[in-house]
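Input/output pair, single chain:
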Amino acid sequence: MGRRVVVTGAGVLSPLGDSGAALHAALLAGRSGLSPVTLFPTDGLPPLLAGQLPGFDAAAYLGEGNLRPLDRISRIVTAAAERTLAAAGLPRALRAERLVGLEVGLVLGTMFSGITTIAEFDRRGLTRGPSYVSPLDFANTVINAAAGQTAIWHDLRGINTTVAGSAASGLQAIASAADSIRAGRADALLAGGADELSFETLLGFHRAGYLCGEDERPLPFDARRRGFALSEGAALVLLEEAESAAARGARVLAEVRGHGAAFDRSRGADPARAARAVARAITIALEDAGVRPEEVDALSAAANGNLPGDAAEAAGIAAALPGRAATLPVSAIRGLLGEALGAAGACQVIDVLEAMGDGRLPGVAGFEGGDAGFPLLAVRAGSAEVRVRKALINAMGLDGQHAALVLTLPEGAEGG
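Output:
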C-alpha cells in the first residue's frame, strides 16, 4: 500500500450549505437543495429544477484581493479551498507567514470546468468580433484554469493537476492524490471536484433526455424515477501522509484505504456491461484497501434518478458485495443535492466523513421501492443510525467512467 493517507480537513460549497455539517444536516432532514433556475435566463428551455449557489459571493470567503482574474468556477473552487485549509488547521495567516513547513498541492476533478467562460468567449468573438474578446476570459477557457487560479491565490506550490472523468471526476481526483502521497511524490494535497451550473449544460442534458421536469423530483433507485436535476458546487478534502499529519498535530478524520476504477465502453447502453464495470471498480477498491465485502458498514451510491444508470449501479453493487447487498445501509444524496458532476463524488466523501463522526447516515429521499428484482433491500427513504468505520463511496460518469473509494476510521477512533 505504500505510505498511509489520511484526511485532515474538508470544505464544501453546495446548494445544501457551505460546510460538511450543514450539508450532512440537510441530507439527514431530507431537505432538497433544488429550485427553479434563477442564475441565468433559460429561454428555450422548459421549466427545470437545479441546485444553485445564487447568493455566492467569493469576497465573503476570500476577503480583500484581486478577484477579477478569477471566473465564477475558479472563485467557487478557491473559496472551497479556503474553507478546507482552515478546517485542516492551516488558516491563511499561518500559511502567509510560512510557519508551516508543508508544501500543499491540488488535484481537482471536473467535467466542464469554466464552460460559461468558454461559451461566452466564443460567443463574443463570433458575434462582436475578435477585438471584443477579453484576454482574462481566454486564460480561463482551459479546463485546468480553476485549479491553476486556486493555486495562485493560495500559493499552493505542490502538484497541480486536473482530472476529467465525467461525474466520477471528483472521486478520481481524490484517488489520484492519494496515490501521489502513497508513492512519496507529495505530503499534502487538496483533492476533490467542482462544476458550475450553466445554460449550456442544462441545454445539453435536457436535449439528451437526462433531466426530470420542474414538476418532478429526482428519485434515486426508485421505480418511478424519470431523470436527474443538475447542480453545482465544489467539495475538497486535504489529504496528508499520516506521519506528517501526526507530526503537526493534525486532527485525522479518516484514512483513504483504497480505490478502484473501471470503464464501460457501452456508456450505459448495455446494462450488463455497465453493471460489470461498477462491480469491477468496487472490487478493485476493496482489494486495494484490504477490506472484505462483509466488513463494509455503509455505502454512498452515485444514483441520481437516471433510469438505466441507477439499475446498473444496483446490480453492480450486488455483484461486488455478495451476501451483503440485502442488508447494506445505502445513501444516495444526489436526489437532494442534484447531480453536481465533478463535485458530486467529493460531496459524497464529505457526507460520509460526517456520518463517521455522528453515526447517522442519510437515506434515499423519496424512495418507495425499486425496479423488479431490486437487490439493495436495506435501502430506505429516511436516515438511519449506523456505526460507520469502513465506508464505500461509489461514483458513475455518464460516459462509462466508474470509480470507487474506501474510507476507514483510523485506529483508536470511536466514530458515531
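Residues 271-289 form the longest helix (19 residues). Residues 185 and 415 are 30 Å apart (CA to CA).
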